[in-house]
């Protein structure tokens, strides 16, 4: 067991009055969760360029709300984070206490469940077939993908993704900096120009997962436990939901298209003091690139953060030096 003391928000940040005991690493996620729950930007509560300042009454109101939310969970839900900002706010600054008379009563019902439960092995086998089959997958040793990263405001950046086995390097060219993130087969790292960006555990895990999924690893080697849950619907299509757990107990949900077998969604979640911070990746527009299908459009969504990666070009089996994936020495 690790007994390392976790740095708290109270220790790391300047002006903390209610989130004192929260692990400091949760700050960004919690702020994004609050913003997304109210449907606002950071500046709804914060003055420009100084997050520690208390000049806005919305920030003071938010402190009271955080205190209230914690109290509700403590007093009524045995300290489980059942109530979060979104429970009441649902994307609005002012929650509605009167029911909406115009809402169409549209119960989100699950589709009819298959007569026999699909087996995980069969779902994985169909997925492998759908992306090209074992033989074709084995023919791709490396690839370089040129892609365009589309931000919610429509701005685009160019990306180059190099991949060899389980290794991946993604280089994004922003106007102000070149950001590299990579998994070298063992560790993940990230840099902006020549500066290291410290990765949180879950962020490192996601870079690794990106490499594993992109390499079409046998998902049984990626996750130590895979369990079919039920048949659901995404955008009108039937999907099999498979709960996936890694060896170090990270949980993800995988959604496979029941008809064509493709993996179309992956959701990971990280617990915070204000409930789960979910990271959803939607894999769409699978296209054939040299006998193997890749999702040409991949949408990444988190509370308050999203972007879409669109493949422009794929070059398979060019020579890539392994050193490319190693963290640059200082
Ligand atoms: C709904 C209001 C609200 C929104 C929206 C919000 N914050 Fe906050 N933020 C707060 C409150 C309240 C605190 C202080 C918490 C405390 O006192 O424990 C805080 C504290 C912070 C701090 C710590 C400052 C310090 O050093 O004391 C940072 C950094 C921060 N917010 C960043 C952000 C970012 C970035 C966003 C947008 C993604 C954001 N916040 C959105 C209410 C908000
Ligand atoms: C139990 C329901 C509930 C929960 C949970 C809740 N709120 Fe609220 N919140 C309200 C209501 C109701 C109002 C509106 C009060 C009013 O209109 O005067 C409000 C108002 C606010 C306001 C003021 C809005 C404005 O325009 O000035 C802020 C900021 C806010 N909430 C932030 C939060 C944050 C952040 C969380 C999570 C930590 C949260 N709330 C959780 C019910 C809730």
Structural commentary:
There is one protein chain. This protein is of the alpha+beta class. Helix content is 23%, strand content 33%. It has helices at residues 9-12, 27-38, 57-76, 85-89, 120-130, 133-139, 201-214, 219-222; strands spanning 142-150, 156-164, 167-173, 178-183, 188-192, 195-196, 225-234, 237-245, 251-257, 263-272, 275-288, 293-302, 305-316. It has a 13-stranded antiparallel sheet. The radius of gyration is 22 Å and the shape is globular. Bound molecules: heme C (2 copies). Residues 13-19, 27, 31-32, 34-35, 38, 40, 42, 44-46, 51-52, 58-59, 62-63, 304 line the site of one heme C. Residues 34, 38, 58, 61-62, 65-66, 69, 83, 85, 87-89, 93-95, 274 line the site of one heme C.
Write the SSE topology:
Blueprint: H1 9-12, H2 27-38, H3 57-76, H4 85-89, H5 120-130, H6 133-139, E1 142-150, E2 156-164, E3 167-173, E4 178-183, E5 188-192, E6 195-196, H7 201-214, H8 219-222, E7 225-234, E8 237-245, E9 251-257, E10 263-272, E11 275-288, E12 293-302, E13 305-316
Q: What shape does the CA trace take? A: globular
State the secondary-structure class.
Answer: alpha+beta
What small molecules does the structure contain?
A: heme C
**Total DSSP helices:** 8
Helix and strand run: HHHHHHEEEEEEHHEEEEEEE
- Helix percent band: 10-25%
Q: Name the beta content range.
A: 25-35%
Note the main sheet. 13 strands, antiparallel
Radius of gyration, CA atoms, in whole angstroms: 22 Å
CATH architecture of the largest domain: Clam
CATH topology of the largest domain: outer membrane lipoprotein receptor (LolB), chain A
Order of strands across the widest beta sheet? Answer: 6-5-4-3-2-1-13-12-11-10-9-8-7
Which CATH top level class of the largest domain fits? Mainly Beta
| Overall pLDDT level | 94
Number of domains: 2
- Uncertain stretches: none
Extended strand count? 13
CATH superfamily of the largest domain: Lipoprotein localisation LolA/LolB/LppX
Q: Terminal Cα separation, in Å? A: 32 Å
């Amino acid at each position: 067991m690790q007994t390392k003391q976790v740095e708290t928000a109270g220790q790391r940040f300047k002006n903390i009055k209610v989130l004192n005991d929260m692990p400091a690493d949760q700050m960004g996620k919690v702020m994004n969760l609050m913003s997304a729950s109210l449907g606002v930007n950071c500046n709804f509560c914060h003055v420009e360029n100084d997050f520690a300042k208390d000049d806005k009454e919305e920030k003071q109101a938010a402190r009271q709300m955080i205190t209230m939310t914690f109290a509700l969970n403590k007093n009524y839900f045995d300290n489980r984070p059942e109530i979060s900002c979104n429970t009441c706010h649902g994307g609005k600054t002012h929650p509605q206490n009167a029911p909406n008379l115009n809402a169409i009563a549209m119960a989100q019902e699950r589709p009819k469940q298959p007569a026999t439960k699909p087996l995980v092995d069969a779902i994985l086998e169909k997925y492998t077939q759908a992306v090209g089959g074992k033989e074709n997958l084995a023919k791709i040793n490396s690839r370089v993908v040129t892609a365009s990263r589309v931000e919610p405001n429509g701005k685009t950046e160019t990306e180059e993704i190099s991949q060899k086995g389980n290794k991946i390097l993604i280089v994004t060219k922003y106007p102000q900096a070149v950001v590299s993130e990579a998994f070298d087969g063992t560790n993940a790292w990230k840099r902006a120009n020549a500066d290291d960006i410290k990765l949180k555990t879950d962020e490192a895990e996601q870079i690794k997962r990106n490499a594993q999924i992109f390499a079409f690893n046998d998902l049984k080697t990626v996750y130590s436990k895979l369990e079919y849950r039920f048949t659901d619907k995404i955008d009108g299509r039937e999907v099999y939901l498979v709960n996936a757990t890694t060896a170090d107990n990270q949980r993800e949900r995988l959604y496979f298209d029941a008809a064509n077998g493709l993996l179309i969604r992956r959701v990971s979640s990280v617990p915070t003091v204000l409930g789960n911070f979910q990271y959803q990746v939607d894999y769409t527009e699978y296209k054939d690139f040299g006998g193997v299908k890749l999702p040409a459009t991949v949408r990444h969504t988190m509370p308050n953060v999203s972007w879409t990666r669109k493949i422009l070009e794929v070059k398979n089996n060019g020579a890539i030096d392994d050193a490319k994936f190693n963290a640059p020495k200082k």
